[in-house]
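Backbone Fold Data
Goal — fold tokens
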Amino acid sequence: MDQNKSIRLTSPIWVSVWEDGGSGTPDECICDLAAQYETEIAHALRDFLFQSFQSDDLMIRFSLPENKALESKIRAKIQAAPLSVCTMEDRLYAAVDLELTSELTEDELDSFIQQVQTQFRDDWGAEFETIGIPAAEGGVVCARLFHDGLSFSCEEQAPRLGQEALKGPGM
């Protein structure tokens, strides 16, 4: 891999909608129809990350306390790991665009992915999923980044993509 390339990690976002405005139990997961909420979820996620951490870069929260040597190697290779959302077909995905200075080993990539899953499950991701996101068509959307069967797919790419949903008036 050439220097300054990026890898995009994607994982499906589990989306539920409360038709009644956010009280009670949400309706079932609508992952196959979640793309229609891309703009609302993208804005809510970005706002949440910037209010909480002043950045959408997951490297700010990256930590491997049980293996500081591996953490140091990963930090030396990943300049940034901004989180956004993207759609593929009718599905909505969390997208982490790794901006790399050099290629990650399989162990480094696996360790990074496991740490991001921990962030999604136990850290700020658990707080984010409690936020009711008003939907343009009515109702309130719940977006869960961590769920049963969570897995990441990986693709190599040159430019950072997936920011279209974040563009709008004043952005």
Summary: The longest helix spans residues 106-122. The chain has a mean pLDDT of 81. Helices lie at 38-53, 68-77, 106-122, 124-128.
